[in-house]
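hey can u check if this looks right to u? its 83 residues, i copy pasted from the old doc so theres a chance i mangled smth
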Amino acid sequence: LAFGPFGEGTVELHRFLVDAAFRGQGIGRALMGAVLTEIDKGPARTVLIQTIFYMESAIAVYEAFGIRPCAPFRDTPAHVRHT
């Protein structure tokens, strides 16, 4: 799990992945908690995450941390538009 700047006061989370063999063990929630704690040390107050509707487990983790849907903020790459 990584994050980077996305404009003033905003960061974007990238590459939030947990190997399928380790899912359901709280690893994703621990990673999210750690990265949000790190983000909170800086000036950013908005966190953006790009996901796809069928990534239900990831969305559940986001929602558990109070992250809610927003308007699209990035173009969808051509190779995944069909999804």
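Strands lie at 2-5, 10-14, 46-49.
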